[in-house]
Amino acid sequence: MTTPFDDYERRLWQGRAAAYRRSFAALCGHTATALLDAARVGDRTRLLDVGTGTGTVAALGLARGAVVTAVDAEQSMVEAARREAPAADVRHGVLPDLPLDDRHFDAVVGNFVVNHVGDPAAAVRELRRVTRPGGRVAVSVWPAPAPPLQQLWGTVAAACGLRRPESAPLVAEELNFTRDRDGLANLLRGAGLAEVSADTVTWTHRADPEDWWAGPANGIGVLGAMLAVLDDAAVAKVKAEYDRTVAAHLDQDGRLALPTAAIIAAGQAP
Ligand SMILES: C[S@@+](CC[C@H](N)C(=O)[O-])C[C@H]1O[C@@H](n2cnc3c(N)ncnc32)[C@H](O)[C@@H]1O
């Protein structure tokens, strides 16, 4: 089933691989090692990376000696992941209906993709479907309320009087899950996974402020959706507000430095 949120996501990521790589890929990459550990990925593991983006996790899986398949719903991401992880089998594939056989993979991971689907429970059931009995599924999502790094966008938007546009729907309430450790663990249990565990990882993310702005400036994220409906003069005002806000959070090298957190949960397929 495709929801309005999924349709929004298809538009959001269309042609955005380069902007994603410049802005948010390093942030998301922080959890890659922990995710592969949670899925027990090692030499010769048949690994599936779902929502591979620009291929960070797929490439790390290859470095561990895994046999890697990766899928993404966005063609520019598929092409970028093929460049990043040339030995992986990278394909177009959209949750919750992957073009892959039942029970094939030893380990299935999704790094910040369950938070980009309109029906998270159906998505995790699909991850379980393609995992062999005894194999591992591991996923990461951002917590709610948002950590300080992600709150920055809301602070800037509020200061500029911006609201979430109608073109950016939320996940339907009846399909959503609580964005904390219990909420993600229960999502995995509900999909039939066993021995589920969930952890919160915290760190300080550092980024060049212009690279960080490149995400929403190119349409990524909720602020990106807000900027997309503004004219150039209005966008320039938001950028000025961003520059003012960011100035309070620069480290001694002039990089934006703010705390963030992610939830990682893993379980075993029956
Ligand atoms: C935040 S990015 C994470 C990318 C990558 N996992 C990483 O760690 O850098 C989310 C990715 O999920 C993909 N995506 C969103 N919805 C999807 C779906 N329903 N099925 C497959 N991929 C999806 C997007 O195209 C995007 O590449």
TrEMBL record:
Gene3D superfamilies recorded: Vaccinia Virus protein VP39
The record ties this protein, via SUPFAM superfamilies, to: S-adenosyl-L-methionine-dependent methyltransferases (SSF53335)
Report the residue ranges that make up the Methyltransferase type domain in this protein: 48-138
* Cross-referenced CDD domains: AdoMet_MTases
Q: What InterPro entries would the database entry show?
A: Methyltransf_11 (IPR013216), SAM-dependent_MTases_sf (IPR029063)
UniProt superkingdom: Bacteria
Q: Name one GO molecular function term.
A: S-adenosylmethionine-dependent methyltransferase activity
Checking PANTHER family in the record gives: 2-METHOXY-6-POLYPRENYL-1,4-BENZOQUINOL METHYLASE, MITOCHONDRIAL, METHYLTRANSFERASE
**Which named protein is this?**
Methyltransferase type 11 domain-containing protein
Annotated organism of origin: Catellatospora coxensis
